[in-house]
Amino acid sequence: MVTHYWLGSCSKQNFDIDRHRGFDIDGYSGRRKRWVQQVRRGDKVVEYVSKHGFAAIRIVVSEPFHDERIIWPPKNGEVWPWRFMTQPELVLSEGRFIPFASLKSKLSIQPLALRSFGEITEEDFSAIESEMRKAK
User: Fold this and answer.
1) In whole angstroms, what separates CA 75 from the centre of its chain?
2) pLDDT tens-digit series, residues 89-126
3) Quick one: DSSP state of residue 116?
4) Buried-exposed string 32-41: b where 16+ CB fall within 10 A, e elsewhere
5) Residue ranges of domains in the chain, CATH in brackets
6) How many angstroms separate the CA atoms of 101 and 82, rounded?
7) Are 18 and 28 a contacting pair, CB within 8 Å?
8) Closest by alpha carbon to 64, among 50, 80, 75?
9) How far apart, in whole angstroms, are the C-alpha atoms of residue 33 and residue 128?
10) Does the reported pTM lie above 0.85?
11) CA quadruple 127, 99, 55, 135: dihedral positive or negative?
């Protein structure tokens, strides 16, 4: 099975909720449905906290599903219903998040990608993971 690598972003508030829950689930808006439906068990997701930096790496442990239960505070009526179950692989403490600017020259990711969910290259994933492990 081929591992795919994903970049997901969230607010600090939603990241704190995820931390409290043990990073057991990840969810995205209806606009990201097409991407989320491609996620498979064993894939890895780098979590980017808006305005803070790269903060966690999760392993996907379920197939994607739709669920309207409110986990994160709704925004413009959106409850991030396109979801998959995860488990944490690497979580940085607050204050150790890796700012995008410090990795920008090593990544093919454009800043706009930090505001959504989508697939990234294995090379980008490895560069981010390496810096995160150093910061741990």
Assistant:
1) 18
2) 999 999 999 999 999 999 998 887 788 899 999 999 99
3) S
4) beebbeebee
5) 5-135 (3.10.590.10)
6) 29
7) no
8) 80
9) 25
10) yes
11) positive
